[in-house]
Amino acid sequence: MAEPLVSHVSDTARWVAAYRAWESQRPDALFSDPFAARLAGERGQAMATLMPRNSRSGWWMVARTKLIDDLVASTVRDGCDCVLNLAAGLDTRPYRLALPASLPWIEADLPALIEEKETLLAAEKPACVLSRMTVNLTDAAERSAFLDRVLQGWKNVLVLTEGLLVYLDEAEVAHSAAISPRAAFTGGFSTWLRPRS
Known about the structure:
The protein is of the alpha/beta class.
């Protein structure tokens, strides 16, 4: 019996990468992701192709990608000193965006996905100071300990939660937002953490 296309939540990262690859091929593309097709692979392409016809274009994923790209650019211009991407999946922003070479960018996700991504992008050079950390972000205790540890020492952190919040309930989202006593939380798919006055 053939393995199902989606057997784990991490498989959806391939599906999202397929939409980025398709958008990147358009002559009027909103962004260019030269790594997306490689990351999506055949499974990601197959997942996207099997979507219902009215959803197959992935326009909402394309719009979300563009909005977050623009948010990253504006917050970095405004003084963001670190980006933390929770449930980073197969995101390629550290490689494809124009970022300061000294900007720390931290990706957090499950060990198998981090390992696969490092293998697929081993020959590529990120534009910033990229590090990856393994953590199960759906485990409340592990998530809290991770956030408390990784947020130490930064003044203005942009926290991307693009692929995470849909897997947490409202109380878990609120708890994660309040985990750092030095930061305030603003809602949305991405969060700009600032020191409390």
